[in-house]
Each structure stands twice: as C-alpha cells, then as structure tokens.
Amino acid sequence: MLQLSLAERATTEGADGPARAMALRIVADTARMLGAARLVPIASAHIDGCLYHGDSGTLFAERLVADGGAIAVPTTLNVGALDLLHAGRVRLEPARAAMARRQMDAYRALGCRPTWTCAPYQAGHRPALGQHVAWGESNAVVFCNSVLGARTERYGDFLDICAALSGRAPETGLHLDDNRRATLAVDCSALDDRLVNEEAFWPVLGAWLGSAANGRVAAFAGLRDGIDEDRLKAMGAAAASSGAVGLFHIAGVTPEDPRLAPDHDSIRLTGEMLHDARDRLSTTKVRAGEAIDAVAVGSPHFSLEEFCRLFALLRGRKLAIPFYVCTGRHTLDALQAAGLSQGLADSGLTVIADTCIVVTPILAPGTGLLLTNSGKFAHYVRPNTGCDVLYGSLSDCAETAVAGRLVRDEALWR
Amino acid sequence: MTPLLPGRAEGRVLKLPRLSLWGGVDPATGRLTDPTLPHVGESVGGRVLMIAEPVGSSSSSAILLELLHAGNAPAAIVLGRADAIVGLGILVAREMGWPTIPLAIIPPRDQARITDGAVLAVR
C-alpha cells in the first residue's frame, strides 16, 4: 500500500500547481500499480518521451507546459523525430514534422536540456554510484544501472517527465537492493579470448543476454577488466532491445559488487550459444560479394572515440553506398574541438544528429538491405523501416561501404 | 486474473509470447509489425491483447497512448507480469480525459490454458 508524505499528498491535490499535481498523480498511480510502498526522491532524469509517435505525445507535453510545468531536477532529453542541425535529412511529412517540432519545443519549455541523445551518459549526464534517478530509453537505463551504478527502473515515456517535474519515482524494482542482486551467474571463461577482444562480440553478448535473461539480473564472470565504455554501451543496448534487461554486472568491471542471490541460476556460456545470438541479429542470409544498399551505425549514438576508429578504418577512401552515422550534438562539438570537423565533412559519411534512422524516416527510398554493427539497429531496422538487416563489425561496415558489396570477416565466428 | 488498472472489457484474445509495443505495433493503424511474431499484419484494435513477456522499449507507453487517443487500442491488455511501461499509457490517457482500457495480470502458466482467439472478459 503506497504511503505518500503530507507534502506529496498536497502536491497531488494541486498545492504546487496543476502540472506538478498531474505529474505526481501519474508517478503515484504507477507506484500503486507496481506495489511500491513509497516514492523515492530522485537526483536527475532523462526523458525519452520527446520522440514523436503521434499527436497524443505532443498534446500531453503541451498540457504540462500550459499548466505551468517546470522540471524539479536536472534533466536531459533523448532523441526527437527531427535532425535540427541538418535540414532535409528527415523525410517526415510537413504536418507530422510540425507536430514533432512542437513536441521537442514543449520539452525545452519545461526546462529540460536539449541534448537530443540516447547516450546522455556520454554527454555529461553521469549520476553517481548509488544515486536514485529516473531515466527513460532502455539503453540509457541499462547503462545507468550497470556501468554507472546509479539506480533507475526501466521507466516508460511520460513517467520520465512526470518524475522530472515532481522529483519523485516509485520506490520499486531496481531502486531496491534486493532486486539488484544477480539471479543468473554467467561463466564466460570458456570463450575464446580473440572473440572476446573483438568489438563485434559485445552486441552479440548483449543480444544473447536479452534472449536468455527472462527477467533475471546477470552477473558475468571470466571477462577481463579494461572493457571500454563503448563496448558496454553496445552490449547494454543489444540486451535491452532484445529483452527487458535493465541491469547486468560484470565482475571486476561494473562498479557494484555483483552479489549472487541464494537461489541463482548458473550458465556456462559457449561459442555456439553466441553464434546463434549473432545469427538472430540478421534478418536475411547474404553471401560475401552481394550488393548492400546502405550502412548504418550509431545506436546508441556514436561517440568521439567511435568516430576516430571509423576514420582509421576508412583511411579517407571513397564510399560506394550511403553510410549513416547517428550521433549527438555533444559528439559533433567534441569533433570540432578536436579539429576533426573538416575530416568528417570530407569523409562522405551521412551524419544524423539529434535523432536516428529507426525512429523517423531517413533512409533513402529503395533501401532494402542494410549492414550495421549495432545490436539495437539489428533489432529495430526491420520492423521500423521495412529494410532487411545484416550484422557485422565496424570494420565490416567500413569495408562494405567502400566496396558497395558485402565484405564480412567470418573467421572469428567459426 | 489480477487487475492492475480498472475497467471492464470483453474481446477475442490475441496471444503473443512477447511484445514490445514500440517496434511491434504501428501506432497509426494498430497493426502488428514484428515479422518474428505470430499475427503479424493483424490489428490489435478491439482485441484482448495477451502478452506473456512484455519486452523492450520505453516508448511502448507512447505507442499505447497514441492507440488510445486515435481509437485503435486493444479492448484490454493482459500481461504475464506487472510492467511499469505498458500501464503508463493508460494512466496518462486517463489524466488527459481520453478513453482508457483495463490492464490485468495473468501469469504465463495460466495464460497457457487460454486459447488464442477465445472470447475473454477482463475486469
């Protein structure tokens, strides 16, 4: 039975204005639905609800603005449906584009930072170990919980902004110690080191986790330290999109002590299990040398380090097919500060900022087969764009874009 | 059956082993779009949508709100376990004064005894 404080009860009845009242009522009703005993004060929020899916989301955000809503904690924004930096990239029909713009404007008017990125944790929004926050966007949630060790449940659109306006979240799920204990021990010691050292291994590990977790929190053992953040980002995104994963632990890597629940399950991971997970990241079978229409990377949004790796792989070569790179404006600023803006302009890459290819129409008409290194794109390209998708490494993406035909290093996966 | 959000509805059951509403349902039409799932191409409108394992995106609440606002929503939703994301679309619709639907829990074990296409009352 949910207990609200006197101040919280007054807020729901309008003491702090109608917007905060509606926001806290929605937070409290969600808490009741989940069986929470209390609400927990939060330190920050990340909002996924600024993406246009139809007029209802715009009307909701504008209601909060009209009712005098303002955020109570520092808040960043996930992608919108428009690329505000590159006019013409998004082919949304004018009426829908106008509603999408109104929705983005409404979230700014509530006081949120216009970061427009699904990787807010690489745009300076990094809550501390143990801090309670309310984040939307499934990859951001799993990164926040796992890599930063802050605490958020997997919040849906609208609860995120309601938590930001009210400064409260339901005290349930991954906010609570007991639910953060590992219930699935995954032994990785049998995996080939060469495979584990490959960047392309991590989205596949995530996809395997998403399909195997079944609501359990995994603790991985037998993976060496020194895994870079972009790999953990890719793993989490793949896990969250293929299953309801909100938290994982890696012994010696992630900051929280991966305590095992007494009744945990155990799995010894093998190469074969990962081969199956890799195969599920492609929607069709294509032989090396066959034509590919486009390459897309950057889900979650590409970082400065990922751009540098891609530039090194391309070595200034001309691209034969469109190569979409989705990123945040924080990374474009970092590229400029590093003196790499001209190199980016000369590279022939199609940069998408503030949004990405699976949430709004961007891909050129006639694109039927796409190669990606992202486990999240691999999951959502087919349902959201109708294109078939193949999964490969960043190196495969670079070589394929130069050749215009599939070049994929299969040796690793034999 | 454990009610999560109140309401009364009846409809033919549309069973899915798992579903992310975002990426799985076209918000403009209510049609199922995930090619890896049964019933792809069918509309969720007016059905009792029974999902054993709700998965994936935090945008699923936005898809449900859009379905409710545009009149393409299921008659009711039944989940295998409580999920913070699906119910939110219904809560926000209620606050906005738009139509709402009941949400209930039936554990996957009990869902297995309900036939796809059978008429089910949710309250």
List the helices and strands and how they pair.
The complex is a heterodimer of chains A (414) and B (123).
Chain A: H1 6-12, H2 18-33, E1 39-41, E2 45-47, H3 55-66, E3 75-77, H4 94-109, E4 134-135, H5 138-148, H6 159-166, E5 168-170, E6 182-187, H7 193-196, H8 201-212, E7 218-221, H9 229-242, E8 248-250, E9 260-268, H10 271-279, E10 294-302, H11 304-314, E11 323-327, H12 329-337, H13 341-347, E12 350-353, E13 369-372, H14 375-385, E14 388-391, H15 394-403
Parallel strand pairs in A: 2-3, 2-4, 6-7, 6-9, 7-8, 10-11, 10-13, 11-12, 13-14
Antiparallel strand pairs in A: 1-5
Chain B: E1 2-5, E2 9-19, H1 21-24, E3 48-54, H2 60-70, E4 76-79, H3 84-96, E5 103-105, H4 108-111, E6 119-122
Parallel strand pairs in B: 2-3, 3-4, 4-5
Antiparallel strand pairs in B: 1-5, 2-6
Helix pairs in contact in B: 2-3
Q: Structural class of chain B, please?
A: alpha/beta
Q: What's the rounded overall pLDDT mean of chain B? A: 93
Number of strands of chain A: 14
How many distinct helices of chain B? 4
Greatest chain-chain interface? A-B, 49 and 42 residues
Gist?
The complex is a heterodimer of chains A (414) and B (123). Chain A has 414 residues and is an alpha/beta fold. Chain A has helices at 6-12, 18-33, 55-66, 94-109, 138-148, 159-166, 193-196, 201-212, 229-242, 271-279, 304-314, 329-337, 341-347, 375-385, 394-403, and strands at residues 39-41, 45-47, 75-77, 134-135, 168-170, 182-187, 218-221, 248-250, 260-268, 294-302, 323-327, 350-353, 369-372, 388-391.
